[in-house]
Amino acid sequence: MTERLYYADPYLTEFEARIVKRGHVGDAPAVVLDRTAFYPEGGGQPADRGTLNGIPVVDVQVVDGRVWHVLADEIPGTDVYGAIDWARRRDYMQQHTGQHILSQAFVRVAGAATVGFHLGATYATIDLDQTGLADATLEAVERLANRVVLENRSVHSRFVPPGELASLPLRRPPKVQQDVRVVEIEGFDCSACGGTHVRATGEVGSIKIVKTERRGDETRITFLCGERALADYARKHALVQRLVARLTCGEDEIERAIDRLEEEHRAVRRALREAEEALLSYEADALWASAHPIGHIRVISRVYRDTSPDRARRIAQMLRDRPGTVVMLACGAERPQLILARSEDVPVDVRLLLQAACQICGGRGGGRPDWAQGGGGNPDRLEDALRAAAETLRDQLARS
Ligand SMILES: [Zn+2]
Q: Block means of pLDDT (10 residues each) for the chain, length 400 residues?
C-alpha cells in the first residue's frame, strides 16, 4: 500500500520514495511507489502532474487499489525524487475547497443539495438537485460563499473512526464505509472527501458563479475560484474597456448606447426599404414605357443578368397591377429563374407560356393561371425562351 502523503500535507511538493512495483498503464510505463505526494484522479478532481527523477508524470490513476504513476519514459533504478506541478495542484485545491464552500452555501440559502461535481482544466461545475433558482438566490449564495472566504476559516481533514461518523453534521453521506476522511471548514461545512484542499478559506480567493443551466431535474452551476476568477474578471474588464472605447460612452451607458445603435439600424433599414421601393417603381415605369403591344395587351419581356430573382419578382408584381399587362422576366444567374405574370383582365394562362419557355431553355416550374415561375435550364437560351413564350401568348390571344 502506498502511503498517500497529500492526505497529511497537501502543500508537500517534493518527496523521496522507492519504486515497489513496475508495470504499464495502456502502452505507457508506470510505477507504484512506497509513498507519494501525487494525487490520483478521483472524487471529481483530476490527477496531479510533475516528475519522478525528472521524467514527466503524465497521469496518476488508482488501479486495483494501487496508485500508478504513468510516465513519459522508462525510469531506471529504485530510488526516486518526486516533484509535483504545484501551480496546477494549487489551482485544483482552490477550486475544490471553493466547491465545498459553494455547496454548503447552496444548502443554507436555497436548501439545494450538490449531487455532482466536476473539476476541469478551465472551469468547475456542481450539479444541484433543484431547478428554477432565482438570480437573487444565486447572488445570495455567492455573497455567503465569499463571506466565508473573507472570514479565512480554517480547513481541517482527518480520518474518522466509523463510530464517530454518525455524530458529525456531514453534508452528504460518505461513499466509502472504511477509512472515511472528513474535511471540515470550521463552523461552516463538514463533508467526506478524499481530495486536496487549502488550509484556510482565504486561500480560495474569489468565488464566482459564471453560468447556470438546467439539466432535467437538476441545475448545473459553473463556477470559478481564485486565479481563475481573477483572470475572468480581467478578461471581462478588458472587454468592457474595449466596448467603452468603441461606443465612446461610460461603462454604465453601454446598454443605452446599444439601444441607440439598434434604433438607428432600424431607421436605416426602413429608409433603405423605401428607397428600394422607389427605385423598383421607377424601373417598373421604365419597363412599362418600353413594352411592346400584342393587340391591345402590353407585353413586357426582359432578361436580367445581374438582378436577384427576388427583385425581379417584386418588379413583376408592380407591373401586373396595371391593367392589360403581361410580364415575362428572366434572371440569368447561375441558376436561371423565369417569372411569367399577367394582370387580372388578360384572358391567358401564363403556365402555358412558362411551358413554352421551358421547352427552349430547359428547367421546370408551375404556378397559377395569372402567375407562374420556373427555374433551372440553360442561362444562354433565356432570350429565345422568352421569344417562344411571346409566340404562345400571341396564339392564345388570337384564340380568345
Ligand atoms: Zn473535497
A: 93 97 94 97 93 97 93 96 97 97 98 94 95 97 98 95 86 81 96 94 98 97 97 97 96 96 97 94 92 91 90 93 95 87 94 94 92 90 93 89
What distance in angstroms lies between residue 117's CA and the mean position of ligand 1's atoms? 10
Q: Which fold has domain 3-84?
A: Elongation Factor Tu (Ef-tu); domain 3 (2.40.30)
User: Please, how many CA atoms are within 13 Å of residue 363, restricted to the half-sphere of its CB?
Assistant: 29
Q: CATH 3.30.980.10 spans which residues of the chain?
A: 90-239
For the record, the C-alpha cell of 64 comes out as 486495483
CA of 57 to the centre of ligand 1 (A): 23
Q: 305 vs 86, 183, 281, 309, CA distance in Å?
A: 68, 76, 19, 10
List, as ranges, residues with CB under 5 A of the ion ligand 1: 96, 193, 195
What separation in Å is there between the alpha carbon of 195 and the centre of ligand 1?
5
In 151-251, which ranges are continuous DSSP H helix? 162-165, 226-247
User: How many A from CA of 17 to the centre of ligand 1?
Assistant: 26
CATH of domain 291-399: 3.10.310.40
324 CA from centroid of ligand 1 (Å): 84
Q: Give distance in angstroms: CA of 24 to centre of ligand 1.
A: 29
pTM: 0.77
